[in-house]
Amino acid sequence: MTEGFVVSLTQEALFMAILISAPMLGIGLIVGLIISILQTTTSIQEQTLTFVPKIIAILLAVGFFGAWMLRMLMDYMIRLFDILPNLTV
To answer: Which of 14, 33, 61, 89 could staple 27 via S-S, CB 3.0–4.6 A?
Structure first.
């Protein structure tokens, strides 16, 4: 196991984490932006108003993207288990 292999394995793991978390983070960002624009235009500055729509939107995103996320994680773990025998010296 070389340093380059460890670096590429770490890069792939970080990319997978970013790829899997991107839909929920993006939807949370969009919903938060919409709610903050509504709060600004209506002068309602209730802090808890942003959390409930964000939580609902993120739960809906997990329900919608959950199968894809699970498939991506399973493919990644299968690749890791396939290279596991090559890691021993």
So the answer is: 61
